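Sorry to interrupt, but I need a hand with the structure work. Can you supply me with one protein entry, sequence and fold together? No commentary is needed, just the two lines. Leave the record below and I will have a look.
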Amino acid sequence: MIPAPIPAALRALPWQGDITAEPLLGGLSNESWKVTDARGPHVVRFGRDFPFHHVDRAREVMTARAAHAAGFGPAVEYAAPGVIVVEYLNARTWGAADLRANPERVGDLLRRFHHQMSAHVSGAAFLFWPFHVIRDYASTLRAGDSPFTPDLPALLDLSAELETAQIPLPLIFGHHDLLPANFLDDGTRLWLIDYEYAGFGTALFDLAGAASNAGMTPDETDRLLTAYFGTLPDAPLRRAFDAMQCASLLREAMWAMVSDLHLSAPGANYATYARENLERLAAALTQFHSLHGPKT
């Protein structure tokens, strides 16, 4: 296999000695590389601000540094507008099966992350409320004449139904993008990476995102929630959680719809990804209504 050419922007970073580089595949919105210089391996990610996704790279760098200080993420070694270089961890990237097999580890990790991160973050507070994100995505899709625009009235009605099911919970600092690939396992501990959407919010979005993105079974979900809360949730909390699982899939689908208008990444088909998440949402919504009753 012929090595990928090293971009000039990558060569221009402050390395020690000669470098080798290989692209890291799988990202849907950023360009990432593994770079090795005289000091060892590093991970480089290029990415601009995405106002349509509420992504601010300066805030992401601050959060990544806070996550390292709190013991949850790799060290930030260099940052400049549009690029971040972090420590390369000798760790395995998780898949959905790993999350399903380790709900207790995930619940413990999220409980600690939610309660320890706020002591390390700085600057203006950023609030992540998925239902606001969904409404704002709808405005962006209408303004961009998205092919998904005819679906928006039904999706917004669904979002309102799911938001009504939520209950008051303590404000925590969450990750808000818990795809399986954002968990790393070094054999001893779990790490979290990619803090584009991190901010203050509700614990249920991270818990629901981890469960829905991994396709957890009801038993695995019970184990996740018990590890996080210390006991199985009561009926109102479980209804809120089940609604948030649907909201997590709805937000992911609409993220893809917006990305279809504004982003381009090698191998990424955002429209297909949106439809896949809508299909998963339909199945989750059927389950939600079977457990908690249809919308009245």
Observations:
- The chain has two domains: 8-87, 92-292.
- The chain has a mean pLDDT of 94.
- The longest strand covers residues 31-37.
